[in-house]
């Protein structure tokens, strides 16, 4: 997985391509992905790769491919009121998007 879905120019291109490939299927997951710009979780010198559907690692910083995160979020059937524990949460990108769906409670 990863690499074939997107070589987008920005976060919206990335999400559009994930939707077109049926990785993102629900409105909740789409809104979370659109609200959080993946490039904000990259070191400045690597931001040009942020909108590719690829995993990225630099030292101890790691991001999985966006298609992986979307598959996880769709499979969990997330909705407000649930709890979520992300062991080994890395940069916090996935946890932030999940948190947007679950809300403050």
UniProtKB/TrEMBL annotation:
Molecular function in Gene Ontology: protein-L-isoaspartate (D-aspartate) O-methyltransferase activity
Gene3D superfamilies according to UniProt: Vaccinia Virus protein VP39 (3.40.50.150)
An example Gene Ontology CC term for this record: cytoplasm
Protein origin, superkingdom: Eukaryota
Signal peptide: none
UniProt xrefs under InterPro entries: PCMT (IPR000682), SAM-dependent_MTases_sf (IPR029063)
Classification via Pfam families: PCMT
Transmembrane residue ranges: none
Similarity comment: family membership: Belongs to the methyltransferase superfamily. L-isoaspartyl/D-aspartyl protein methyltransferase family.
PANTHER family: PROTEIN-L-ISOASPARTATE O-METHYLTRANSFERASE (PTHR11579), PROTEIN-L-ISOASPARTATE O-METHYLTRANSFERASE DOMAIN-CONTAINING PROTEIN 2 (PTHR11579:SF2)
Protein name: Protein-L-isoaspartate (D-aspartate) O-methyltransferase domain containing 2
Organism listed in the record: Amphiprion ocellaris
Gene: PCMTD2
């Amino acid at each position: 997985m990863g690499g074939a879905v997107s070589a987008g120019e920005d976060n919206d291109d990335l999400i559009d391509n994930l939707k077109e490939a049926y990785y993102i299927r629900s409105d909740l997951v789409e809104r979370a992905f659109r609200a959080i710009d993946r490039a904000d979780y990259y070191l400045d010198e690597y931001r040009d790769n942020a909108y590719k559907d690829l995993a990225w690692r630099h030292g101890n910083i790691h991001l999985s491919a966006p298609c992986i995160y979307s598959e996880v979020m769709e499979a969990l059937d997330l909705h407000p009121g649930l709890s979520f524990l992300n062991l080994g949460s890395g940069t916090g990108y996935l946890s932030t998007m999940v948190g947007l769906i679950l809300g403050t409670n």
